[in-house]
What does this fold into?
Amino acid sequence: MSLNLHPEARARLVELLAEALKHVQVEHNEFPAVESLELVLQLDRALPEHDALHEALVSYISDRPLADFVNSELATELAKRNYDAHAPTLRLTTLDEYADATTAAERLISRFEQLPFHYAVFVALSPDLSSSLIPFLGTEGFSISERICLVRGSEASRSFPPGTSPRPRGLLLPQEVGLHSNLVYLRQDVDGYIASRYRTTPVDDYTFFLRAILGCLFATNLLRPNVHWSFFTGERSSLAYKEAVTGWELVAEEEFDIDTSRCITRMGLNPRLAGFPGEVVTELVNDGLSKCQSAFANLQDNETLLLACQWLFDSYSSGSALQAFVQATIAIEILLGDKASSDLIGLGELLANRCAYLLGTSRQERAEILQKFRRLYSTRSKIVHRGKNRLNHDESGDLVELSYLAASVIRKELRLAQADGREARIGE
It folds into this structure.
């Protein structure tokens, strides 16, 4: 599958791009000068704005697909040149490969037409979690969905070789990166466009799914962000391999924010599992993975569930207690909120009642959950509406309670998704 540009539209794009390239300047022998890219940024005006092609390009790249594609390709090609701090600024067309602007534009548009490209993206789990999960993974790994699976590094590295990191590192020497045989990786198959110097829609999508999966496993009590001292203080990143005729080529290394990186590093199986017999642990691990599988079986029907899982993960990973408190509340609001009803009785009261009736197994337990949630939501309101700047000792304890409630609500939804999956299979 590739883009089917109308011949006249294609010719117009080549013409506009050729003219834009004539104005691009190169700094330090390597970087396109930002101020010289004005005409490049206007290229998307020549593309349709409200048809199937536009929607596809937004999902492949961004909301300004052609400009971001051209900028990324230029940056990638120029990065192969040697950096020179004293080199004068020069026009792009003075370089041999861009001397004929029309030929260069034709080459870039031809590459653009080949979209979408196919990628396999890998994110390494922590060594502790990897060693715990390896016994549960066969040589084929564990499929969470058709495009997402857990795989052993020892198996994946046979098809996905190490390579020089494409990520810019300033004046530092290039670094070789690859898959480690002793780790477990979350692999996602992605279509679109991924580049080393621009963040595109597929990167946002696979990052969302990563956080949703981990949040789902937190909610099932399978995983916990264990608190322990670690040598690790920097970032974690994903490795993106592009499918080519000759095999898989490493094309991008995308680092995560520091909170997500630290959470992934600290992740491990719930320490409470250590107190159970081996066969019970096996059953619990398989059940947790199965629930996650059910959540991803129908992305459209389970969209709000996955969003709630993502917000729960963000709450666990946040370095700010105040932010974590709000994020855990949002996870509940996503699943139990209702604008029409909340306008009548207030969102806090609506969530309190729905949470109590969903989780409570007796009148007394429902009354306790009602009282507890009202207190928790009051703290949330102080943070959001009054700019509360810290949690006191009791409120810090409330954050633990709130996280538990959010996970409990998600678990209920996961059971429903699991039951729906069974009924669908029976219907087949």
Q: What stands out?
A: The radius of gyration is 25 Å. The first strand starts at residue 25 and ends at 27. Residues 150 and 212 are 14 Å apart (CA to CA). The chain has a mean pLDDT of 89.
